[in-house]
Amino acid sequence: MTDKNNSKNWKFTHSQADKANWKPGLREIFDYRDLGFVDATNGDYIAHIVKANGKTQSDEVQQWHLHECSFQFVLVLNGSATFEYEGEGVRTLQKGDAINQRPWIAHREIECSTDFEVLEIVSPANFTTRIVPATEIK
Q1: Are 77 and 95 in contact (CB under 8 A)?
Q2: What is the CATH number of the domain that holds 88?
Q3: I need a surface site. Which of 39, 77, 102, 138 has the fewest CB within 10 A?
Q4: Does residue 3 belong to any structural domain of this protein?
Q5: 131 is in which domain, residue-wise?
Q6: CA-wise closest residue to 111 among 76, 79, 73
Q7: CB neighbours of 75 closer than 8 A, spacing ≥ 6?
Q8: Who's near 53: CB < 8 A, 6+ residues apart?
Q9: pLDDT value at 135 more than 90
Q10: Is 10 contained in some domain?
Q11: 78 in a domain, yes or no?
């Protein structure tokens, strides 16, 4: 049994779907719904739903990049997307698929469907995204 005093003073959170507040975020082609984990975990985690919003412009995330984080989980809720991962090759993620995107793995988006939607959980909440020159990819 886990020691209740080892909870880091995290708070209970309940994000209600009917009160969802979608906002712009890291990428202009997606809208983001914060699920309240940043405040609830004192910044240890962020959990959000990310969904395509119909915009189609390219951005830096379609280049090789990485996230400076210690944990990243992605569950595809709708649609599909194809990514290339350093040392893992090209992977197409479809509705129902989940990945544990290991920390600091370089990757790039090749394409995503117009109905692409994911649940993403990352630690820490204030992670940095950094572009990586293709020459550094193994």
Answers
A1: yes
A2: 2.60.120.10
A3: 138
A4: no
A5: 23-136
A6: 79
A7: 97, 98, 118, 119, 120
A8: 29, 30, 31
A9: no
A10: no
A11: yes
Report the DSSP beta bridge partners of residue 77.
none
- How far is the C-alpha of 36 from the C-alpha of 84, rounded, in Å? 30
Asked if residue 44 is part of any domain, the answer here is yes
Diameter of the chain measured on Cα atoms: 49
Burial class (CB in 10 A: 0-12, 13-18, 19+), 16: exposed
Residue with tokens 């202009």: 28
- pLDDT per residue over 53-95, tens digit each? 888 776 666 789 999 999 999 999 999 999 999 999 999 999 9
Please list, residue by residue across 68-107, b when 16 or more beta carbons sit within 10 angstroms of its beta carbon and e when fewer do: ebeebbbbbeebebebebbeeeeeebeeeeebebeeeebb
Count of the separate structural domains present in the chain: 1
The token pair at 132 is 């990586």
8 A C-beta contact, residue 136 and residue 108: no
Provide the residue count of the chain: 138
CA-based Rg of the chain, rounded to a whole angstrom?
16
Q: Which residue has the tokens 């719904």?
A: 33
Which tens digit of pLDDT belongs to each residue from 19-63?
998 988 777 888 999 999 999 999 999 999 999 988 877 666 678
